[in-house]
Design a protein that fits this description.
The complex is a heterodimer of chains A (about 375) and B (about 375).
Chain A lengths: L13 H16 L5 H11 L11 H19 L5 H17 L8 E4 H16 L3 H12 L3 E4 L28 H7 L2 H18 L1 H4 L9 H30 L4 H15 L7 H26 L18 H6 L1 H13 L2 H10 L9 H7 L8
Parallel strand pairs in A: 1-2
Chain B lengths: L13 E3 L3 E2 L2 E2 H11 L2 H4 L6 H12 L3 H10 L26 H16 L5 H13 L16 E8 L13 E7 L4 H7 L31 E5 L2 E4 L11 H9 L6 E4 L9 E2 L4 E6 L3 E12 L13 E5 L17 E4 L9 E3 L1 H8 L11 E4 L8
Parallel strand pairs in B: 7-8
Antiparallel strand pairs in B: 1-2, 3-9, 4-5, 4-11, 5-12, 6-7, 6-10, 10-11, 13-14, 13-15
Classes of the chains: A mainly alpha (about 375), B alpha+beta (about 375).
The complex binds zinc ion (ZN) (2 copies).
One zinc ion (ZN) binds next to strand 11 of chain B.
Chain lengths: ~375, ~375
């Protein structure tokens, strides 16, 4: 009798990946990296139950290994900082609730070590105490195996691997062009360019010979980016509208934040309200990351002063805290509903390639199982 | 992947994503890790949350109050999904699961219940192996696996002797320390062909010896990355790799070199993790050898040197049952046997004799008979 591969012996397990993405999506919706938002989402989904119902310890171990590998996947690039924090919290949650005895360890590969240390350093510098503390707790609990590679590798013994799909909404990339547009890079490039042309003009010998540069490079780059942003805006304007409506009680906060950023944004009028929305979402999350721990320390918002942080983050402190429980709850409930689901998911797809359209489909399908 | 490949060749990276790594030197890899870690990170001391918390607060410059709040917010209670006095039954999937994982698991469980499929025997065995050695400390300090030692997970695959009867390729998994030699791995590999009797005994079934041991053919080699590691521990050992090396030389292959397996420790090796290598013994019994994992030791590992090499997985091959009675373990293989329903065919000793010999023990009809050692006999 041909023997089947034992269950959970692959690196990842699709239903679990879906559960994890749902959890991280809820965390992402909170616009925060505070641990309490994560743990709230965890409890709401009853996430520790993923370990229930496995009788065999060997199977339990294999499953633990899969869960931890999944968490580590989101802890590492290419995901956005917020999702990576979610991955770290997930490692903590899964490690501590697994039912395997002795517990299965989290695998850190040598090649990822520098990336992890960078993440920690950034978190320390930004004062994200809960992020750093959760990491320290894992280290103190001896929860980590220091390995050669993230997974066990056995060559021929592989099953056909499915194409890895990366959840587009979890990647910071959606703002890349926007960022480039708003950064002073274009100006810088144009300065360098004119400087270069000047030097060239002054050097008779090369004036006619050298023709590697394009004089209108900056302008053309700008056009390209503007074109992309217009496309992005057109394609996802629906998502934007929905998203704004979705904000519910948080609408005021959004405006507040947009005002704060107006100064920075005045430069690029070409970018639409859509771009500002994206930008504000991003700013919001980062500001929340920084303020809360300070609040723990001082208990007084006005004392909040972060040396290293990005500009304008202090002002967001209050809005970050204010919107907390109601908004999360409201949004999460909404996400459980059928109708709102679709619009919520489009937020993920800000600049996702077409093939990722399977994501909303998948999410919508999620409702029926509740009564199964 | 290729683009982000690390310049330092002792930091393993994928050669083929998710399949195998580039070549690296194991001891240098170990050094790279040790250079990056604090001794406490890989020490066997149990983690002490309180002193670690204190240290953390100091390093981060956090006040006692803030630390207390952090502790509360990040406590393990924050992960509790059921009231403390109503813990769930962890053996059974709850009736109306919402997590995708549980929905799938419930389907499987319901199916299993209807089919009354019992627990995988192999899993049971693995549980048992694990339980015996977890966190096991040695009696004396000398026998303690040192902190910062390397552990390698080595899979040794069994050749299919009779393809017809083999649907899966079974293997054993051995946990080796970096300080072990290849000869120690060799001694840990138990292969039926070391016990296999050669010869046809249909005319004199009583003459078939029970088993013969390794002693007749001591020569063996491992092959890793262009080097043949020969077992030269015994005077009668031959360098069985020389044939291959000469052959390759004649054909303009890259040059292979030789070394002694008893002088080569794992930390001395340059290997690719996940890549198939070779163990060859008995002249022609070839096993794939794959190092599936290399890592630093951990406090929960078996820490008693004497228990290594540590067998952590043994494919529990279902023993081949006699084609006639379906009860007893196979002892004979016959070929060109007109009494048999298949060719070759497997028989237990009793059925084999009843079917192929008269009461006086005279051979009936034409066939060849070979003694057979079932892999399952080692379970
Ligand atoms: Zn063999
Ligand atoms: Zn029989």
């Amino acid at each position: 009798m041909p023997r089947e591969r034992p269950i959970y012996s692959d690196f990842f397990y699709d239903p679990l990946t879906e559960d994890v993405e749902e959890l991280l999506a809820r965390f992402q919706q909170s616009d925060s990296i505070r641990y309490e938002y994560f743990s709230a989402a965890w409890r709401q989904m009853g996430f520790s139950d993923v370990f229930i119902g496995i009788v065999s310890m060997a199977e339990q171990k294999r499953f633990s290994r899969v869960t931890l590998a999944t968490a580590v996947k989101y802890f590492l690039p290419p995901y956005s900082y917020q999702i990576r924090v979610g991955g770290l919290y997930l490692m903590f949650g899964l490690y501590n609730t697994q039912l395997a005895v002795p517990p299965v360890q989290i695998r850190f590969a040598l090649k990822d070590w520098d990336i992890i240390q960078k993440f920690l350093k950034d978190s320390v510098n930004s004062g994200h105490q809960d992020v750093v503390y959760i990491y320290h707790k894992l280290v103190a609990a001896k929860a980590i195996h220091f390995t050669a590679m993230p997974h066990f590798l056995s060559f021929l013994k592989l099953r056909k691997r499915k194409q890895k799909t990366v959840c587009a909404g979890f990647i910071g990339r959606t703002m890349a062009v926007q960022e480039l547009f708003s950064a002073d890079i274009l100006e810088e490039v144009s300065n360098i360019e004119s400087q270069y042309e000047k030097l060239k003009e002054n050097t008779v010998a090369v004036r006619c010979e050298a023709s590697m540069t394009q004089r209108d490079f900056t302008a053309r780059l700008k056009d390209c980016m503007a074109e992309f942003l217009t496309w992005q805006q057109k394609t996802f304007s629906q998502a934007e509208a929905d998203n704004k409506g979705n904000g519910g009680g948080g609408d005021d906060d959004d405006e507040e934040e947009e005002e704060d950023e107006d100064e920075e944004e005045r430069d690029y009028k070409a970018s639409s309200s859509r771009a500002r929305l994206i930008s504000s979402i991003k700013q919001k999350s980062y500001s929340n990351f920084q303020e809360a721990p300070k609040a723990r320390r001082h208990r007084q918002p006005q004392k909040v002063k972060v040396e290293s942080s990005s500009s304008g983050s202090e002002q967001h402190y209050e809005s970050g805290r204010k919107r907390k429980p109601a908004s999360l709850r409201a949004r999460t409930w909404k996400s459980l509903g059928v109708t709102k689901d679709e619009s919520r998911m489009q937020v993920w797809l800000l600049s996702a390639p077409e093939q990722n359209e399977r994501v909303p489909v998948k999410r919508i399908k999620q409702t029926p199982p509740y009564k199964e | 992947m290729a683009a982000s490949k690390n310049a330092n060749t002792n930091i393993p990276d994928y050669e083929y994503t998710d399949v195998n790594t580039d070549i690296f030197h194991i001891d240098s890899f170990r050094t790279e890790w040790l250079n990056r870690l604090h001794p406490g990170d890989f020490s066997y001391q149990p983690g002490d949350q309180d002193s670690s918390d204190a240290l953390f607060a100091e390093e981060m410059g956090i006040s006692a109050d803030t630390m207390a709040e952090l502790k509360t917010v990040c406590s393990l209670d924050s992960l509790r999904c059921h009231p403390e006095d109503q813990p769930p039954d962890t053996d059974v999937v709850p009736p109306d699961p919402t997590l995708k994982t549980l929905i799938q698991r419930k389907k499987k469980q319901d199916y299993r219940d209807t089919r009354k499929i019992s627990k995988n025997r192999h899993d049971l065995y693995a549980d048992e192996l694990e339980r015996l050695t977890f966190g096991k400390k040695s009696e004396t300090l000398d026998d303690m696996v040192p902190e910062g030692e390397i552990l390698l997970n080595v899979n040794v695959y069994y050749p299919a002797i009779f393809e017809k009867f083999t649907h899966v390729r079974p293997h054993i998994t051995v946990l080796m320390m970096g300080s072990h030699t290849l000869a120690e791995l060799r001694d840990a590999i138990c292969c039926v062909s070391d016990l296999q009797v050669c010869g046809e005994f249909s005319n004199t079934p009583d003459m078939a010896p029970d088993f013969i041991s390794k002693d007749h053919f001591k020569s063996a080699f491992f092959y890793f990355e262009g080097v043949f590691y020969n077992d030269m521990r015994y005077p009668e050992c031959q360098d069985t790799s020389i044939t291959t090396i000469e052959w390759a030389k004649d054909r303009n292959f890259p040059t292979y070199t030789q070394a002694k397996m008893e002088d080569t420790r794992f930390v001395d090796l340059k290997i690719k993790v996940g890549f198939p290598y070779l163990y060859c013994h008995q002249g022609d019994c070839e096993h794939l050898v794959i190092i599936t994992d290399v890592r630093l030791t951990h406090k929960d590992d078996c820490l008693d040197k004497k228990l290594y090499p540590l067998l952590t997985h043994k494919h529990r091959v279902s023993t081949q049952k006699c084609a006639v009675c379906h009860v007893y373990i196979v002892r004979w293989v016959t070929t060109n046997d007109r009494f048999a329903p298949s060719n070759p065919c497997l028989f237990c000793d009793k059925c084999f004799r009843m079917l192929h010999y008269d009461t006086e023990g005279n051979k009936l009809g034409e066939f060849q008979a070979f003694p057979y050692v079932d892999r399952g006999a080692f379970n």
